[in-house]
Design goal:
The protein is mainly α and 160 residues long. Among the domains are: 37 residues; 65 residues. It is 48% helix and 9% strand. It has 3 helices and 3 strands; from the N terminus they run ββαβαα. It is elongated, with a radius of gyration of 45 Å. 3% of the residues are buried.
Length: 160
């Protein structure tokens, strides 16, 4: 806010009559209205300063360091975006593999339903249904065959 210079007509606060001081415009106007002071003949210049250093700020070390930091941050953002793109591609591949397994399972279930409708017995444990492939290693099938059949309670098996 701009300041106004006033000359005191009588003592006020720490100022004596005849002294000149600058105050914020509103306070100076109040003192003039009260008759304590009058506006001074010379007023202060506005609070603006113009400085010309004669150098280009783009040539300073601080500016160069700031530009380098911005470039590093930009590279980090690009690296993170590439990492996210890679993770997204991996997720898409996993989803496609899952869709393939779901389709295979649906085909196996459909074959079982067809067999049941035709009156054929379902394949024995450890056998593959006709036309179905399995992803299990052979040693897992051997483990299943060696385990005694347990009474199914609908609860998960413990201790595996």
């Amino acid at each position: 806010m701009a300041k106004k210079a006033i000359t005191f007509q009588s003592g006020w606060s720490r100022y004596n009559a005849g002294e000149t001081a600058a105050f914020e415009a509103r306070q100076a106007d109040d003192l003039v209205k009260q008759g304590i002071a009058v506006l001074a003949t010379t007023q202060p210049k506005p609070d603006t300063i113009t400085v010309s250093l004669g150098i280009d700020p783009r040539e300073t070390e601080a500016f160069k360091e700031a530009i380098a930091e911005i470039a590093r941050a930009g590279q980090e953002v690009q690296d993170r975006a590439a990492s996210l793109d890679q993770r997204e591609a991996e997720l898409v591949a996993r989803a496609a593999a899952l869709d393939g397994r779901e389709a295979e399972l649906a085909a196996r279930e459909a074959a079982l339903v067809d067999r049941e409708k035709a009156g054929a017995a379902p394949p024995a444990e450890g056998e593959k249904p006709a036309g179905a492939e399995t992803d299990k290693p052979a040693d897992q099938d051997a483990e299943k065959q060696s385990e005694p059949a347990a009474k199914s309670t609908g609860l998960p098996k413990q201790g595996r």
